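name: query_chain
kind: protein
chains: 1
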Amino acid sequence: MNSAHILVVDDNPTNLKLVSDVLEFDGYQILKAIDAETAQEIIEANPPDLILMDIALPGMDGLTLTRLLKANEKTRHIIIVALTAFAMKGDDAKASEAGCDGYITKPIDTRKLAGQVAEFLGPNRSPSAERPK
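structure:
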């Protein structure tokens, strides 16, 4: 199966594992990073189709990395979805201004996450669209 590659960037090991496990179960190919610097190395070596980007990362934060990726000709096409527990009024606007293509709040709803990711990727990119009926 040729499913979408998703990079999950989160410094919390529990969140990283949960999001990764849920999406792997639905057939996505998952890459993982615990900080922005590791994410940059992964993106350079194997650009994903979509990044689930935690906003509050140690060192460089997720919005700063998003701005860098969206300013780079080689990576600006990657879909970046902010994944954050900071669901304060205006945070979605900050994520959008930084270049995020969408916003998902934590704690994630494990029943909805794969569908939310599929919506960002479009109808022809979700693993369920590639499975024989």
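note: Residues 13-25 form the longest helix (13 residues).
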